[in-house]
């Protein structure tokens, strides 16, 4: 039995959750990231935890488990806040079952034009993805985890034939009992260094942030025109499709358009100002499904999933158990690499 630590590569929401769950189970674990925690896709995320009602597919079930595990984490991780605000949705893309109960104007009183038909999803919620990532890492450290930030992993190391048993950090090598690749869009390149293929697609999206007075948006609002939610400090988040924008000027234009739409849609929003408009690249396997579990290369565990905020809680719990006990968790069974 190896006495080396488990090394988790990637301090986004996924790696942070896996590290926390490993440390909470008493494992010796080291978290390594090229930058600061949450500086990948996690930084640009809307942070919506939810699923389509009535979706009883395996993917829907996994999302429901994600919600359940976020409830648990909010109880056990100091300072971790999950806001179970619910989501008000309408329009073709988000809802086919809207009712005309007039509740939209009550739930979101600042909407300038509340929809006649809408649907409220009381089970949905949101979190601030970077803050949640930081809280998970702090709790992991409280449980003995080590961290190395600003440290890119240059290669997975296989000193004994086909088994991954360490990572190379430039001129330094760290030995590991298991290496977890939770490196977002960097995962393909890392797996390739161990001869393992992890096909992923490029999936960019834009996140616009507006500074606005707190309390304008009560929960999550989503329809065919826009999605929006507001953080406790007043920051409004509006995620948008990416349409080949390729310069800061293009992005600022997207930000200004989003602001205009927000001002038109919410009373009292005239003061809203664009804080940023940035592209986030969502880590997504080529078939769109999560890829979680030991690969065919011994010692190499992979954790890449979309939607990663919703799923990080359950995947963190399941991955930690699989790594430490060699058990296989049923909810991950159809999401293996092969
Ligand atoms: C605009 C937008 C909106 C979204 N909205 C939602 C939503 O509402 N709900 C939801 O569930 N999901 C949402 N997502 C998706 C979600 O944000 C991602 O699935 C999730 O953040 C992925 O987390 P991760 O930890 O896997 O990857 P990342 O956050 O990308 O973290 C990977 C980390 O690995 C590090 N890394 C990479 N290569 C190396 C290396 N060689 N050495 C060391 N470190 C390395 C990076 O620095 C990075 O910190 C959204 C995404 C975007 C872009």
TrEMBL record:
SUPFAM superfamilies assigned to the protein according to its UniProt record, in alphabetical order: FAD/NAD(P)-binding domain
A Pfam family assignment: DAO
Keywords per UniProt: Oxidoreductase
Origin superkingdom: Bacteria
UniProt entry tagged with the keyword Nucleus: no
Oxidoreductase recorded as keyword: yes
Protein name: FAD-binding oxidoreductase
UniProt source species: Leucobacter manosquensis
């Amino acid at each position: 039995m190896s006495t080396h630590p488990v090394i988790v590569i990637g301090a986004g929401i996924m790696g942070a959750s896996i590290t926390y769950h490993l440390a909470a189970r008493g494992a010796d674990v080291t978290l390594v990231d090229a930058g600061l925690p949450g500086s990948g896709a996690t930084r640009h995320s809307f942070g919506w935890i939810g699923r389509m009602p009535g979706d009883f597919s395996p993917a829907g079930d996994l999302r429901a488990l994600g919600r359940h595990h976020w409830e648990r984490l909010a109880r056990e991780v100091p300072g971790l806040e999950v806001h179970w605000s619910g989501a008000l949705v309408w329009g073709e893309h988000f809802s086919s079952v809207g009712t005309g109960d007039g509740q939209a104007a009550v739930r979101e009183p600042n909407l300038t034009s509340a929809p006649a038909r809408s649907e409220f999803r009381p089970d949905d919620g949101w979190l601030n993805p970077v803050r949640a990532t930081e809280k998970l890492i702090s709790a992991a450290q409280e449980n003995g985890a080590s961290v190395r930030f600003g440290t890119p992993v240059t290669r997975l190391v296989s000193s004994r034939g086909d088994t991954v048993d360490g990572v190379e950090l430039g001129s330094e090598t760290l030995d590991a009992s298991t290496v977890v690749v939770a490196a977002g869009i960097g995962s393909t390149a890392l797996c390739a260094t161990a001869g393992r293929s992890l096909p992923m697609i490029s999936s960019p999206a834009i996140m616009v942030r507006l500074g606005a007075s707190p309390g304008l948006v009560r929960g999550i609002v989503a329809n065919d025109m826009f999605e929006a939610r507001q953080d406790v400090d007043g920051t409004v988040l509006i995620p948008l499709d990416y349409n080949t924008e390729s310069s800061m000027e293009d992005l600022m234009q997207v930000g200004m358009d989003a602001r205009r739409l927000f001002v038109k849609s919410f009373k009292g929003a005239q003061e809203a100002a664009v804080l940023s408009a940035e592209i986030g690249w969502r880590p997504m396997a080529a078939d769109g499904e999560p890829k979680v579990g030991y690969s065919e290369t011994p010692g190499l565990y992979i954790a890449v999933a979309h939607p990663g905020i919703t799923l990080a809680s359950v995947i963190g719990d399941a991955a930690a158990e699989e790594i430490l006990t060699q058990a296989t968790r049923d909810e991950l069974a159809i999401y293996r690499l092969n």
